[in-house]
Amino acid sequence: MFLIKVILISCTGALSPGPLTAATAAIGVKHGWKGGFFVGLGHMMFEFPLVVLIGLGVATFFTSKTFSQVVSFIGGVFLIFFAYLTIRDAIKVKTISASDFKRSPILIGIGFSALNPFFIAWWVGIGSPLIFEAISYWGLSGILFFYLAHVWLDFAWLSIVAHVTSISGIKLNVYRVILLIVAILVALFGVDFVYYSIFERHLLSF
Predict the structure, then answer these.
(1) How many domains does the chain have?
(2) Which one of 2, 7, 126, 161 has the largest count of C-beta atoms within 10 Å of its C-beta?
């Protein structure tokens, strides 16, 4: 029963629209499902230590208003810059080759997770009760059991998103459109992050 609960609640985070999903769509055009897998790997490299910190009870700092606002601003600027680079790629690209979209999927996974305060807030607010419940059942080893029950969803979702945008036969104009759409979405998330850091409310809601 606990496993089912973890999977269902994890879906509210893993499958929700966000900059990580949008960036994965762009990466998938060139790297296929493997690009999504490596984005997931980068995501996990930041997420798992965060889960451990929450389990050890030392992550209360992440709930502070100042932390959320600072990370929102930095993350928003990061996303806007990423959107700019993606638009630049869409304009400059002449052919679809392995050299297109050079950003590392692993670094994208780390950056888009670490600089997303709402991802961190999800873990502190929604994920932490599940972590503590797992610890109550199995002690500290429950953190690992819980995380394995959660993380496969991230890998599956990001790999599927990347695969869908990698379907063979894509034409240059379609590739440009995908990059531009992704850039616009990521820029919107970036503006929302910056707006939240200043006014403590969102421009976007889902």
Answers:
(1) 1
(2) 161
